[in-house]
Prior knowledge:
Blueprint: H1 2-7, H2 12-18, H3 25-37, E1 41-46, E2 49-54, H4 58-74, H5 78-89, H6 95-111
Antiparallel strand pairs: 1-2
Amino acid sequence: MDVLYRLGEATAAEVQAALPNAPGYSAVRALLRILEEKGHIRHRTEGARYVFAPAVSREAARRSALRQLLDTFFNGSAEHAVAALLDESSKRLTPEELDRLAQLVENARKEGR
């Protein structure tokens, strides 16, 4: 998806070429087919080639992926996900980043009332 968002549209060969440590062409085609079946991308025909493009905005895809991640690994709990992230990256967060996170929590607290 990142390749398609970056390029706007691409063939399977172009997607494969843009991927670091890319899988084989057949695997890329299979992944594109799955993404299309799920409604994340669409294609148009250009001669004998399929040209793929995102069907949803990057933001909508992020929200969908985050929901799936929360449901799969954290029983739908944002609290558990944030706790895991903080535990994993707390040593790498700057004081400014921690302040911004604290402000986001405070804003969420205010909006929840």
